[in-house]
Amino acid sequence: QVQLVESGGGLVQAGDSLRLSCAASGRTFTSHVMGWFRQAPGKEREFVAAISSSGSPTVYANSMKGRFTISRDNANNLVFLQMNNLQPEDTAVYFCAAGDARGNTRLVLTTTRGYSYWGQGTQVTVSP
Predict the structure, then answer these.
(1) What is the mean pLDDT of residues 61-78?
(2) CA distance 51 to 16
(3) Where are the alpha helices (DSSP H) in 30-113?
(4) 3 state DSSP class of 91
(5) Cβ atoms of residues 68 and 10 within 8 Å
(6) Residue range 16-23: mean pLDDT, rounded
(7) What whole-number distance in Å separates Cα of residue 32 and Cα of residue 122?
(8) What pLDDT, on the 0 to 100 scale, is given for residue 27?
């Protein structure tokens, strides 16, 4: 069982940066792929970024490449999403998720089906 709690969201202006954090409970954090997803009002939840249990590789949705960076701190059960040059279209609730790496330290998961555990989400609002 993994419990996830996101933090770091807020209201920013276009061009600003935010760093989201996700704190995970449980002793099996290092055996999980971690991912970030987001969901805007009236839209489906979409993939943002993922990181393998070992920390490499990472993978990003095309629209986030070059602006967002996912990282993890396995010693402290933390996952981060650094978001730079935020735009109004990035406004959404951002969710942290954990999926079983099934012993593959290089596995990354890009669909919601791969993840078993989800946080409650943190709101990110970007004004023009």
Answers:
(1) 95
(2) 24
(3) none
(4) coil
(5) no
(6) 98
(7) 21
(8) 78
Nearest to 126 by CA among 15, 43, 40: 15
At 16, the pLDDT band (50, 70, 90 cuts) reads very high
Rg from Cα positions in the chain: 14
d(CA 88, CA 15): 9
Question: For residue 117, what are its two tokens?
Answer: 């555990």
Average pLDDT, the chain: 96
Q: What is the pLDDT, as a whole number, of residue 125?
A: 98
Q: Tell the residue number behind the tokens 């839209």, with chain if given.
A: 43
Farthest-apart Cα atoms in the chain, separation: 44
pLDDT over 70 percentage in the chain: 100
Q: What is the identity of the amino acid at 34?
A: M
**Position 100, amino acid:** D
Q: What residue has token string 């996952």?
A: 79
Q: In angstroms, rounded to a whole number, what is the distance separating the alpha carbons of residues 59 and 8?
A: 21
- Four-residue CA torsion sign, 69, 55, 3, 23: negative
